[in-house]
Amino acid sequence: MSGATTATWSIAGLAAIGVVVRPWNLPEYVWAVAGAALLVGLDLLPWREAVAAAAKGLDVYYFLVGMMLLAEVARREGLFDWLATAAVRHSGKSASRLFLIVYIVGTIVTVFLSNDATAVVLTPAVYAATRAAGVEPLPYLLVCAFIANAASFVLPISNPANLVVFGAGMPPLIDWLRYFALPSAVSIAATYVLLRFSQRALLGGQVADAPSSPMLSAGGKIVAAGIAMTAVVLLGASSRGQSLGLPTAICGAVVTAITLALRRQSPRPVLADISWSVIPLVGGLFVLVEGLNHTGMLSSLAATLRDAANASPHGTSWLAAIVVAFVSNLINNLPMGLIAATTTQAAAVPHQVTAAVLIGVDLGPNLSVTGSLANHSLADRPAPRRRTYRRPSLPARWTSGHAASALARSARTFAHLTMSNMRGRNVQPAQLRSPAPGNPFAPYTDCPPDITAARRTHLDRPATRPNLQGLLVKSSRRPAAGQRPRNPAEFWRVLE
Questions:
Q1: Distances (CA, A) of 206 to 126, 136, 322
Q2: Which residues, in sequence order, are CB contacts of 481 under 8 Å at separation 6+?
Q3: What angle do CA 95, 100, 101 make, to 5 degrees?
Q4: d(Cα 373, Cα 369) in Å, to the nearest integer?
Q5: pLDDT in tens, 392-442
Q6: Do 72 and 478 contact (CB within 8 A), yes or no?
Q7: Tens-place pLDDT, residues 342-373
C-alpha cells in the first residue's frame, strides 16, 4: 500500500470518526469538510475530481432542502403538535392503544416526510403530549427512534440514503415496491412487536384526560395539504423514473411561500431554523468517498462483489446486507451508503444485491445511536431560538458551608437538565417557571421539587447587593446543527 493510499484512508477514517464522535462538540460537517479539504490540499485528490464528486450529490441536496422546508414550516404551524395531541385524544385512555397510534403516525411521517422529520420534529411533539397525558414517555420516544429507520425504505423519499445508494439508477416506483414492499412490511411489523414486548411493563397504565386539542391553523391545513400534494408529485415522478430532488425542493419552496404569504411573514425565521450544515456534510462525504475510490481499493472491492454476486446472488445479498448494517453503526450509515453506492454501481450487481445493501443501510442503524444522522438528531436536538433566561439575584455573602450546599444543588440541577435533554426534550432555565394555565405542552410537569424550592428561597430573599433578578440573557441564535445546546447551568446558578 502506497503512502498516498495510506494517507487517504487515514484522513477519511479520521473524518468519519469525527462525524460520529464529534470531538470538542464540533458539528459533523466540520469534520467532513476538513477531511475533504485535506485530500485536495495534500494533492491526494485533484480538485476537479473533488468538485465533480460534490456535484454528484446535487439531487440529494435538492431533496434535503425541500424536506427541511416542509418539516420546518409544518413544525411552525403546529401540525406535529396537533397530530400528537390527536393521538392522545383517540387513545381511549389506554397506554397500549396510544402506543399503536403513535407508531402509525410515526410510520406515516417517515414514509412521506423522511426519517429525519420523524426524529427531529415529531419526537418533541410526542414527548410533550405524553407528558401532558400523564404517561411514561420512554416507550413513545423509542417508537420515534426505531420507526424512523424501520419504515425508511417504504418509498424512495422515505430516507435521503435511498437517493445516495441508487443514485442515477433509481428504479421506477413499481419496481421499487416490488423489491421493498414486503421487506418494509416485515420490518415495520417486527419492530412494533419487539418494541411492544420490550416496553410492556410501561404500557399497562391509563392515559389521563386528554388535554385540550390545539386548533390546527389555516397555515397548518395548507401545510398538510401541501405535504399530501408533494407526496403525489414525488410518487408520479418516481413512477416515471425521474429524479426526486428538484421536485421536492420546488414543492417545499411553494408550500413555504404560500404559508408565509398567508401570514404575511418574512421567510427569514424559517430559513434561520433550517439545519443548512447538512449540505456541506453530505458534500464533504461525497468528496471523501471519491478520494477512497481514487486509491483503487473500492474498485478491487467492487470486483470481489461482482464475482461473489455472479457465483451466488442470494448468499451475496444476505452477506452484503449484514456487513453493511454492522459497519453503518461504526461509521454512520451516510458514509457507508456512499461507499456501498460507489461499490455496487461499479460492480454492476443485480438489483437484488443493491436492494439488500439498501436495507442494511436503512435498517442497520437501529442497532445503535451512532448508526444514522436521524439517531443523532433524536439524541441531541438543538435548543429553540431566542429563549429568554432569567438569572436569580446573587446574595450578599456566603460561607464555605453555603458553597457546598449550593454545589450539591447545582449538581442535581445539571443532572436533571442533562437527563431531560437525553430523553428528547430541551429544558431551559426559563422553563422552570410555572407554565400558562391550560397549556398542554408546557414542559414544567416533571421539574423536581427541590429545584423549585431552592429557586423560590433565593428569589424571595432580599439582596443587599444590586439585584440581578431582572437580568435577561437572550440566546440570539440557536446552536448550529450537530452542536450541543449551551449548558443551562451557566445561566442558572443557585448560591447561598
A1: 17, 10, 40
A2: 27, 28, 29, 275, 276, 277, 278, 382
A3: 95
A4: 9
A5: 333 334 334 443 444 444 444 444 444 454 444 444 433 333 344 444 444
A6: no
A7: 898 888 888 889 999 999 998 888 887 666 66
